[in-house]
């Protein structure tokens, strides 16, 4: 039996995940709103056979000027709407998966179903939806509210929204589009289903006006560790984008998720868990460390501190090169606790801690040679804690080029990553099963040939 290989995604938001990447000599500060930049990145990722491109999203400018001065130093204010960007990228790529984030709080399910089904057909079966509920007041203010919806309402709405979206994606059986010119039958009406959904948040009749795609329906992606997040994942997620800080954490999270799948009558193996990693690689340990340090030195203190303020609260009374204090009234207690514990364990100053977080926007940072980095990736993968990784590059396209030149050959030497695409759809790349239609319809599309 061929060896199981990793799934690897590439997060392509902004210029990369390093807070000060835009100041690097190799960076084009205007790149995050340049299609040419993204096209270069997408083609390079496809040449390397990545499973998918991934676009996180917040709907508007979420960064605040805390502490003062940090806003002007942040490049995370210039962005593209993800589906628009991925639609354009679908035209300059052929195989790589295209996963975009959309919020269930600020979209109607019909919008989501229709747009993702369209991208899925435009790209011949390469689309995925990252389901989020959004979390910031900045986004709420763009949609007629002062505060964002409370947690329970958001997740309740998300659960219903995802059900409706899946229902709409089942609107067409795979053989409903007949295209019989002689008989004047474009459509088999038995293959077109009206959803007639009525729930607390949505009333949606259907059907969708986009036929089923070659991968049945778009891949559903999710992140989140709360009970509500795990429930949403158990019912829907086919890919999880996770941010575990240690192998033990990854193992515990994976088990929780797979149990949640079983609770909903799904198979444990029908889920791909990808851990977010930011890699600083060099031919020697010293070269890798020098790359990390050079980028760290570009982080202005206000910008670095803004990452810590968001999690730990106001740190203005504390010296940058002193110890990390206990958090005061943190936004997410578990994240704050984990950060402070790590800082104390590794004897980090406030500057060390913000440098680490600002280097990969909170993803797991690995610094080392190709061998040492792949050792860690292999250890996480081979014990089943993760099925692969979502690469959160420090700076694009530079970090992707480094990954391709240094990490990829080592992964392939060990038989851990593909050398070519075996399939054409994202579902095939991820080796996930075709989803059954709720109407018991055929799910594999037949090709409509022009009739002579
Ligand atoms: C790796 C990761 C990526 C995320 N990406 C986004 C995103 O792009 N947009 C967004 O609004 N929220 C994003 N989130 C937030 C989650 O959707 C979720 O709201 C948050 O993790 C809290 O959920 P929980 O309480 O279940 O952990 C992300 C979270 C994680 C862990």
From TrEMBL:
Positions annotated to bind FMN: 57, 101, 155, 226
CDD domains from the UniProt entry: Nitrilotriacetate_monoxgenase (cd01095)
Domain of life: Bacteria
Domain Luciferase-like: 23-385
The entry's keywords: Flavoprotein, FMN, Monooxygenase, Oxidoreductase
Short name of any one Pfam family annotated for the protein: Bac_luciferase
InterPro entries per the UniProt record, alphabetical: Diverse_substr_monoxygenases (IPR051260), Luciferase-like_dom (IPR011251), Luciferase-like_sf (IPR036661), NTA_MOA (IPR016215)
A GO molecular-function annotation: oxidoreductase activity, acting on paired donors, with incorporation or reduction of molecular oxygen
Similarity comment: Belongs to the NtaA/SnaA/DszA monooxygenase family.
PANTHER family to which the protein is assigned, alphabetical: ALKANESULFONATE MONOOXYGENASE-RELATED (PTHR30011), C2H2 FINGER DOMAIN TRANSCRIPTION FACTOR (EUROFUNG)-RELATED (PTHR30011:SF16)
Protein name as it appears in the record: FMN-dependent oxidoreductase (Nitrilotriacetate monooxygenase family)
Source organism: Gluconacetobacter liquefaciens (Acetobacter liquefaciens)
